[in-house]
Amino acid sequence: MIKFVTWNVNSIRIRAAQVAEFCAREQPDLVLLQEIKCEESQFPKLFFSEIGYRAEVVGQKSYNGVAVLSRDPITVLRRSLPGWEEDKEARYMEVLFGGVTIANLYLPNGNSGGDAGYQRKLAWMENLRCHARTLLDDERDVVLAGDFNVCPTDLDLAEGVLDPNDALVRNESRAAFRALVWLGLTDAARALHPTETLYTFWDYQGAAWQRDRGLRIDHALLSPRVAEHLESVAIARSERDKPQPSDHAPVVVTLRC
DNA sequence: ATGGCACGGCAACCGTGA
Q1: Residues with Cβ within 8 Å of residue A38, at least 6 apart in sequence
Q2: CA atom of A198 to C1′ atom of B13, Å
Q3: Which positions on strand B lie below 7 Å from a protein C-beta?
Q4: Which terminus of chain A, N or C, has less C-beta within 10 A?
Q5: Of the candidates A203, A235, A237, A230, which has an alpha carbon nearest to the alpha carbon of residue A109?
Q6: CA of A91 to C1' of B9 (A)
Q7: What is the DSSP string of A190-248?
Q8: Is the pTM of this model over 0.85?
Q9: In the structure, how far is the CA atom of residue A27 from the C1' atom of nucleotide B9, in angstroms?
Q10: Nearest one of A124, A220, A219 to A167, comparing CA atoms
Q11: Is the Cβ atom of A121 within 7 Å of strand B at any atom?
């Protein structure tokens, strides 16, 4: 069985103890982290090595940053999204584990920088789609997981939490997400929980957590053979209820062998 | 009623997030 987690931690230095406690309890094979908000030299690798996890890090100062925690060694295949190699924002890495190519991504939000900022989000998504097509054409077993910054349907957000023009719910964002899925990927959470209210993010403001005014924006997309092995998807909501939490909860996916 | 919350950088607030 493979057990992996995707979690936007909103600073790994603030959340290291919580993430380590989570790993020690849940014992995932892989933890895909987003928004670590530091350079590799600042990542608390020693701290995680004490509980048996190593870290591969693609970081930058202050913003963004992705990393993968693992108990066993993994191969890093890429440290940037093809077509965005020159971009200084650390938003993508790809690793090989158990024969599966696993992409850890932090998609641009798209609400800052005006229309140019939004177009940049769409361009990033189109690059992701092209790269995903290449991986699938190669007959590879693939997982694309992370913070997609897209609520795919109206079932994926509480009513009234976002303006209809918000970059997370705009028609073009949703169409780009569908175009990605329609390559033949399976949205793991919706495959097993097609009609449930599922959220992975609750804003710090306006008592969003207490009122359960959330969004589902953290996803795991699976290639066909991987999807056949899908066993469970769980959102670890209790992590959002802890002191000084991330605004995102971990998404825990298990695949049977 | 145009706030609100949290982070990093940096040393007073500001950009960013979603």
Answers
A1: A11, A12, A13, A59, A61, A62, A65
A2: 37
A3: 4-9, 16-18
A4: C
A5: A203
A6: 20
A7: HHH-SSS---SEE-SGGGTTTTT-EE--EEEEE-HHHHHTEEEEEE-GGGGGSSS--SB
A8: yes
A9: 34
A10: A124
A11: no
A206 touches strand B (CB under 7 A): yes
From the list A58, A16, A54, the residue with the least C-alpha distance to A39 is: A58
Q: Which amino acid is at A47?
A: F
Give the residue carrying structure tokens 């509480």: A158
Determine which helix (DSSP H) or strand (DSSP E) holds A252, and give its type and residue range: strand A251-255
Q: Measuring from the CA of residue A89 to each C1', which nucleotide is nearest?
A: B16
pLDDT at A257: 86
Q: Exposure string (b/e) for A149-183, b if CB count within 10 Å is 16 or more?
A: bbbbeeebbeeebbeeebbbbbeebbebbeebbeb
Within 10 A of A29 (CB to CB), how many other CB atoms are there? 18
User: Mind listing the pLDDT tens digit for each residue in A207-218?
Assistant: 999 999 999 999
**Domains, chain A, ordered by start:** 2-255 (3.60.10.10)
pLDDT in tens, A219-245: 999 999 999 999 999 999 999 999 999
Structure tokens at A69: 């925690």
Spanning CA of A117 to C1' of B11, the rounded length in angstroms is: 30
Nucleotide nearest to A157 (CA to C1'): B18
What's residue A248's pLDDT? 98
Which position has the token pair 């290449």? A134
The answer to whether the beta carbon of residue A111 comes closer than 7 angstroms to any atom of strand B is: yes
Q: What is the pLDDT of residues A51-104, one digit of tens each?
A: 999 999 999 999 999 999 999 999 999 999 999 999 999 999 999 999 999 999
Q: Which nucleotide is nearest to A161 (CA to C1')?
A: B18
d(CA A149, C1' B8) / Å: 21
